[in-house]
């Protein structure tokens, strides 16, 4: 059996007469995090904290299970195949406590809206192999839906120490007061505080370090009366728990498609449509595949394709075309 990564993706499998160009994807600039006015955290004070790089951008997250990490959707949507590290304190030194894993799959909240407000800015990352819990690496506490945040919370990360300044080498933390939504003029906020750190990183409440927020965005860097915006984790606790339930591949196809085109939404399926003389030279057959896994396996038994025909797999994310591969 194989554990699924619950990948929130759609694929199209298309047969066309001529090759199509490979589409380009553009990565939007992430909200660079900052942690201003803080102090250095104790070593391994935040055992659940992880970090990863996406090009020139830094992201963070929190371990919620050996094989799952929660982060911001604006980070998660680009995190596939990236390297993620837990058990770190000084980013410039190899301390022997680090665990490095690969992001093998991701799930973006279906209602995530990119933009100024970044509504529903939350994602899950599936890592492989799983982290090994020890005295340096542990999971964070996920709040219940009725969780009441403390008046003061703590942010941790390796963000910039000043606006426009360099990022910290050592893990930093800062205590910040909470701001009610009614006291802010910013729309679509979940939780707001006065500072921020790495995008996707944790805002924790209480002595047991309950994950009450996820770094989303901010205006400036520690500016007065401009609170940072955090995703309120308690509103997504049920979504987090339900999507960590493993889904297993069916040993035999549970759907069979016999037409030129169709929609597949299953853990396994077969397409029984003979190509060749049954379709015109300029005709396309497009099958949309909603994949619950981080990857797809195909086995082509026969096709009827000529050397001038093509079988293409195109990956879509948030209704935008991504990588395309000729099978």
Automatic annotation (TrEMBL):
CDD domains cross-referenced by the UniProt entry: Tryp_SPc
Which UniProt keywords are present, listed alphabetically?
A: Disulfide bond, Signal
Q: Which GO terms describe its molecular function?
A: serine-type endopeptidase activity
Establish whether keyword Signal is in the entry: yes
Report the residue ranges that make up the Peptidase S1 domain in this protein.
35-245
Question: What GO terms describe the biological role, i.e. biological process, of this protein?
Answer: proteolysis
The answer, when asked if Disulfide bond is one of the entry's keywords, is yes
Signal peptide positions are: 1-19
Its recorded name reads: Trypsin-1
Q: Which organism is it from?
A: Folsomia candida (Springtail)
Its lineage opens with:
Eukaryota, Metazoa, Ecdysozoa, Arthropoda, Hexapoda
């Amino acid at each position: 059996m194989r554990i699924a990564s619950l990948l929130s993706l759609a694929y199209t499998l298309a047969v066309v007469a001529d090759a199509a160009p490979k589409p380009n994807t553009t990565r939007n600039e992430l909200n660079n995090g900052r942690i201003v006015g803080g102090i250095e955290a104790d070593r391994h004070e935040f055992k659940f904290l992880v970090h990863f790089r996406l090009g020139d951008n830094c992201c963070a997250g929190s371990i919620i299970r050996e094989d799952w990490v929660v982060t911001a959707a604006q980070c998660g949507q680009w995190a596939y195949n990236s390297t993620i590290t837990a058990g770190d304190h000084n980013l410039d030194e190899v301390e022997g406590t680090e665990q490095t894993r690969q992001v093998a799959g991701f799930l973006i909240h279906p209602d995530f809206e990119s933009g100024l407000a970044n509504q529903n800015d939350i994602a899950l990352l599936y890592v492989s192999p799983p982290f090994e819990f020890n005295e340096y690496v542990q999971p964070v506490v996920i709040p219940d839906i009725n969780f009441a945040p403390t008046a003061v919370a703590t942010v941790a990360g390796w963000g910039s120490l000043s606006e426009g300044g360099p990022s910290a080498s050592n893990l930093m933390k800062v205590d910040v007061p909470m701001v009610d939504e009614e006291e802010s003029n910013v729309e679509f906020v979940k939780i707001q505080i006065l500072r921020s750190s790495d995008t996707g990183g944790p805002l924790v409440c209480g002595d047991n370090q309950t994950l009450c927020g996820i770094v989303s965005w901010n205006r400036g860097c520690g500016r007065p009366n401009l609170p940072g915006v955090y995703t309120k984790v308690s509103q997504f606790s049920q979504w987090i728990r339900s999507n960590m339930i493993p889904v297993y591949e069916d040993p035999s196809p549970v759907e069979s498609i016999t037409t030129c085109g169709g929609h597949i939404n299953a853990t396994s399926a077969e397409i029984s449509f003979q190509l060749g003389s049954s379709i015109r030279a300029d005709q396309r057959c497009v099958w949309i595949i909603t994949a619950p896994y981080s990857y797809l396996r195909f086995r082509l038994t026969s096709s009827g394709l000529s050397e001038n025909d093509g079988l293409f797999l195109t990956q879509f994310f948030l209704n935008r075309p991504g990588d395309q591969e000729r099978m």
